[in-house]
Amino acid sequence: MIRAAAAALARGETTARRLVDERLARIDPAQNIFAEVFADQARTAADRFDAGRRTGRLLDGLPLAHKDIFCLPGRQPGCGLQPGRLALDLPPSRAAANVGGITLGMVNLAEYALGTTGTNHFLGDVANPRAPGHITGASSSGSGAVIAAGLAFGSLGTDSGGSIRLPAGFCGVVGLKPTAGAVPAEGIFPLSWSLDEVGPMAATVDDCAILFAAAKGETAPPAITPDVAGLRVGVPRSYYLDDLDSAVTDAYRGGLARLEAAGARLVDVAVVEEPRIRSLVRLIMRSELSAVHRRRMAANPELYPLAVAKFFTAGEGLLAADYIDALRLRPILTAQALATTYSQVDLLATPTAPVTAPRYDALTDAGDPAIWAAITRLMHMTQPATFFGFPALSVPLATGGPPIGLQLIGPPGAETVLFRAGAALA
Amino acid sequence: MSDDLEKAIAAVIAARAPEGQGREAAVAEAARLARDVESYRHLLGPQHKPAVRR
After folding, report:
1. How much is the ipTM here?
2. Which residues of A lie closer than 8 Å to B, measured between beta carbons?
3. What is the pLDDT of residues A29-53, one digit of tens each?
4. For strand A232-236 and strand A265-269, is the pairing parallel, antiparallel, or unpaired?
């Protein structure tokens, strides 16, 4: 879509102003996707582009909308609270500057980027355009929804355990958590600096690849071909396929069959993943959350509703030694994953989530242990790649109901391989 | 063992976290995480000793 739109702009078949105005006119406040819309600024930027002031960037002239956790020049992010409520002093995001384009506005997220459903206690729930009444997934809830609603060509999100991949899966769009450190993370409000990754969300794999290249500062469009001939696609022997919803199992098998029909070789493969690795992710996150938020939470408890506060409070009970041990285990277990799994396959294919998107009204009481278990289960598939720092791409699978994502995980630097496999599923 | 761990964590949280912010759930979560990281002790080498809570 991005290449076609850029070509149409270059040929004069459309204008940036038209692309902006069409999208601004379709924003539905009831969907609660945007934290703030920059209508005037977007129109001014579009008019500048149409008057010939081009930057030469890959997204030049195209409307985008990013998660409201990125600092833009002159604007601190709301981070899931009303804009301006948090006193922050972040530098402008380098990834957002690299991407360029025309920023239509900033989109909603879970408070402080901490959440998996799309619920926000301050700003309300974000609607899932592809599955009304169902959760969007989070924390990049607005990013998934703004792409699913066709209101932007791309959105930068952040992922510290599934926050790009879950909304991509539940909203039926494409999302990439890149290799650790591949995209500059400066200028975002940290959730957990050891785990936070900036990544793109878009309507197609090709669009996602273009955004990824742009976010890294590249100016040449990537060449992505749906070529999987001979590619070794790992089917995990354990952990990832435990206790799936039947609709997820069916869609997952369908996706594997499509990859095999396109020439990929399916390989039954062992994995080192197990539930304790999720604990290590949570331990690192809780510890760093506590370091970031403890003073503000003590001074301004009204900024931390109970469902959010308990994440932060757990970090107060952990020792520095626990945190250091978890960090020391990261390279050890990552080396085990590379030796055990990625010496045998080029990528690992798993569902993005073990279930289809639950309904918002089924998750209202997060104090209920059963509901809390259902919420935390959403990250079963996504947290291990975060711990290992591996790239992971969520692409939509064919379904007859709510969207379901396929997660493709590779070793560090394997994004192009993931894009090729994802494109073969389109 | 687990009671001692949870008591130790509860005491730290009580001293450091504001009232009414999910302390009970936070104690259980922190204890689970502390146990799980400790269960990987064998990977950290012979010099590694369990963390001591005072």
Report:
1. 0.85
2. 276, 279-280, 282-283, 286, 294, 297-298, 301, 304, 306-307, 309-310, 312-319, 321-322, 325-326, 328-329, 332-333, 372
3. 999 999 999 999 999 999 999 999 8
4. parallel
